[in-house]
Amino acid sequence: MLRILSLTFVCLLGLAVNNSVMAKSLRMDMYALNSNYKKFQNTADPKVALEALGKMSEAALDAQKNTPKSLKKVSPEDPQLHSYHSLLEQLISALKQAQALTEAGQLEQAKQSVEKIDAMADSSGKCNSIKTSHNFTRCIPT
User: Fold this and answer.
1) What is the CATH number of the domain that holds 15?
2) Which range marks the domain in which residue 42 is found?
3) What pLDDT, in 10s, does the model give residues 71-96?
4) Using CA atoms, how far apart are residues 26 and 62, in angstroms rounded to an integer?
């Protein structure tokens, strides 16, 4: 999950660098995703976990509404645009699943379900390695 958040964060910031208002919005969304993911992973309290998941879902949905300026002019079939939306859709789906599991009293399974998104990001095939703010190498689909 941390990998997908970092991946999404880097993609969104890199694509939105030309539009400062959008970049701020996307940066804030990615900050909310990262900070609430840490909160979710480090809690044993289902209420705290649900609150963190809710904030993560809100940030992911907000990020999904915004298309970075650099992608507004590309073809709807452009792989970068598809990758951008696909990553956010996968994240939103994983968060919904984690919320349902947490509500059912299965917090540990919820944490595991969110971590599975890392495998999706890593199995995406062709990628570029980049250094993230978390000081580990990320595989970014191209």
Assistant:
1) 1.20.120.10
2) 2-141
3) 778 888 888 888 888 888 988 999 99
4) 8
